[in-house]
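Open question from group meeting: does this chain pack into something compact, or does most of it stay loose? Before anyone orders reagents, we agreed to write out a predicted structure and look at it together. Recording both the input and the output here so the notebook holds the full record.
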Amino acid sequence: MDFIDTILHVWHEFMQFKFARETLMVVGALLFVFSAWSILKASLRLLIWVMMMAVGVMAFSYGLNETTYDVPLAGVSDLNDLRGYMSLDTLRLLCARLPE
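Structure tokens returned:
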């Protein structure tokens, strides 16, 4: 409790100064500007990385469409293609487990 009383005493002494409120305004403005700058800097950095990731995904997908290799990622485009290899019960079981 002595610590809180000391802080309150120092605060009241500080508020007795002539320019205490102006000092608080300047400190608050500096904290605001510094915080806003830090947030913007982090956001811009994040935006740049997201754009780089998007370019990478576009390059990968374009390369995947233009490749002459048989890539298993682009193998099955429709469930009807799988139906010839599986029984109808197996396909129903797989469709029931999709939400899981």
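Observations to bring back to the group:
The chain is about 75% helix and 0% strand.
The chain has a mean pLDDT of 81.
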